[in-house]
Write the structure tokens for this entry.
Amino acid sequence: MNAIAVMLITQAVHGLAYGMLLFLVASGFTLIFGMMGILNIAHASFFMLAAYVAFQIMAWSGNFWLALLLAPLAIAFLGILMERVMLRRIRRFKLGKALVLFELMLTVGIMVCIEEAVKNIWGTDPQIINAPDALRGLIPCFGMTYPAYRLFIIGLACSILILLSIVLFKTRLGNIVRAAVQDAEMTVALGINVPLVFTFVFGLGTWLAGVAGVAAGPLLTVFPGLANQMLLDSFIVVALGGFGSLMGAFIISMFLGELTAFGVQFFPGYSTIILFGFMAFVLTFRPLGLFGERE
Amino acid sequence: MLLEVKDLNSYYGLSHVLQGMSLTVYSGEIVGLLGRNGMGKSTTLKSIMGLVRPKSGSIRFQNQEIAGHESYQIARAGIAYVPEERRIFSNLTVLENLMMGVKPGENQYQGGWTLAKLYHHFPFMKDRSAQKGAHLSGGEQQMLSIARALMGNPALLLVDEPTEGLAPLMVQEVRDVLLKINKEGVAILIVEHNLKVALSLVERVYLMGKGHIGFSGSVQELQSMPHVQEQYLSI
Amino acid sequence: MKSIRAIAPPVTCICLLCLYIISMDIGAARAFTPLQADFSSYDPEKQEIPSGDTIKVGLLEPFSGQSASAGEISNWLLGWVVHDINSQGGIMVDGKMKKIQVIKADTATQPVVAKRALQRLILNDKVDFFVGTAGSHIAIIGNQMAEKYQKIFLNYSAYSVHLMNAQNFNRYTFRTCSTTDINARGLAYYFSKTPIRKFYILCQDYSYGQDFGASMKKALKEFVPTAEVVGEVYHPLWLKDFAPYLSKVQASGAEMIISSDWPPDSWNLMLAIDQMGMTIPVAGQFFDDPRMGENLKNKKVGLGNTVVNFHLCNVETERNSRFNKIFHERYKDNAKVQIDWPTGVVGGVIGHFYWFFDVVQRAGTLNTEKIINLWEGDTYESFAGKLTMRKCDHQAVMDMFVSTLVSPSKWSKTGNGLGYQEQAVRIPADIVMSPCPEGLK
């Protein structure tokens, strides 16, 4: 294979790996916003917290798979707790239009709490999560070699994507979620226990962020600023893709991943300008995002 | 008595929309709720449905107090809602929209409204069951909204402005559908702007003043009192 | 009489001895000497706060946000010196023994926050001087406020050359750390003695990284005319994915990456090199973290990493050996600090703090003007060698040190992992220092 083809494929796979990771975080972010109208600023903090919890589980057991299984569940549990104990309560007060603001403040508060808690428990030093040995080598594929762990991330995210699509598009639960994303009030008026669905979606969203957090662990060092990095990117994805649009989140995640990878290759220094310029352009003409349908 | 609303007070923020609202619906009848814009007709339906939480007053449905209950509980008790502007799920297919109306629980097909029966009443839905709701015309969307409500086999249907924005032929069709449904034993409380349509449909009417009932009586009684019509209806 | 005469010599002797001991005691109380304290009890998180009349030092660092760890490290190093001096009684200033009190101010690495925090330090806490700070864009605010309020500002960790040029210099600000320019010249000079010629510049995309990249190109031209910069890319701070950059590096045929990155970027770069199956070494200031080695799967990764610094623990001087030994005793079994030897800037910055307090001690006063006058041109024997405060731009003049990483290394955490070569290469000050900037008054 010639050098240019190798370069193009390599960069495309790099972009895919990061795009997939981003999609895992952004999908939960967009589902929660679409359904409940809550811009959960703490979403990326759950992503970071999952990485720390995984780090801790690794420190105790040394088993990455155990961390990948347990840490997202623990995070989902926290997410459900946050929804049931705090967000649900705040909705009971008749706050009218100010509700959005109060919810935003609440999630910002939780974000800060998580960041500070992480600092107090694990310190400010970067920590490292090691991938299991089986995933640490290089795998030859299509006549070139590729880091096993990145392929694993792509595979993991793809499986989750497929599972998620089946649940969302082929089951009654999925129909209910999609209906509630579009019009929660109408859905509840049809006799569906939407508050319970909210809890489910919140749990699912934080679980996805948790999976992404653990998966990102061996790729990045874990440090208290990790959440901020992810927050901006996932926010861009959700705003560009359209609030509540899973399809939009997927496409923009991939686009952002590839833009970053190829931007480094062809126009370093300009990929940020292109990205934000594109965002400004899209939001000017389609304030609801490329795939957004709902106000 | 199917539904009894008594001294209902509801607010939107600080504005006192329902001010001691009372009305009654008996089993199997069609009742019209008429009045000018901004009197609180839609809010009355939303309050019954639990979408607006009433501050005080009572709503009894089949002899059970439902005021303050969660909306989905009220729906499960046997009230269905056909909202203004149809609000069908444009992302979902026609079939998926219909299935959203199915209520969880055992006595699902109690009233006999099944998919087959609805397809019989609305043949276009069968042909276009795999299409997205967004691709239907306004009239078709209205039919879908009504059919979706029927999937839950309600004892009472709350219908809000079903003919708004529809072509005359379609208005006629909606009217016929509502009459057919009523013949199957479903009571209907309808908010309707078009007086002619309303009077041809309902047996009794309530006219709303600011947040409360100003007149109630049969269609004949209303027609014999032009000053009442003048007071509550004309613009 | 006879008996008196008989006992006179021993009595005199005893009296003299007493006097000598007393005077020694007074002497010891008057002047601190570095590394006298018992450090086994030293914990930066449980520092004793002296009460009463104290010397107040403001510590301007990020304690929140992404760079919070930089602040914690500075607090640890300053605390070390303060612990040492306070346990020796403090410093004699203006006729009174005073202990040192550190007051932390959080910059969050944001100029607006830093300015407010600094104002509070000066106006409310009434600090005698302040020290800092991570980030040249924050240090510049330190410069401005030092001049405005006429307080001495010791900058031990902002490296941008521009901080002490004609435009930004003021007589209240002193810099003890090196600069991007000095670091680059040290590295380039070192490379001139090696066969490595193909370099890839991969730095963070902000002033510090840009400065370092520019300095590096200039220095390579001067010291290694045959060197080739085969690529130059600036990546966003706190980069999430190094892979696309490394694929580009790989294609360029570079033998060495030159990078200004600091943690977590420096760590992520090394992890990514490992994951991509590459072994290319990296040169810079922060590619020597001993914790790194344990987390790299391919044991060849990190070998040949080249570190340049104004201090390294493998510099063989008597003072440095003593400091290393004390530090090693304190931290070899400490899980929290995770390092065994004072790697990186640790010993250097501790030395700078000792220097500053020594200047204060010799000035014998907190009077700003007197301290400035004494410090300008002052020379101090620190752990790794002589430091001189250049009068023209208040930039410390120092030898630089370069080390490559080898394995096994006695300086690694396990004693046989990745770490510094046995002994650092000393590059004399007159090679690395650039002349005084033009246009200074």
About this structure: The radius of gyration of chain B is 17 Å. The mean pLDDT of chain B is 89. DSSP finds ten helices and ten strands in chain B.
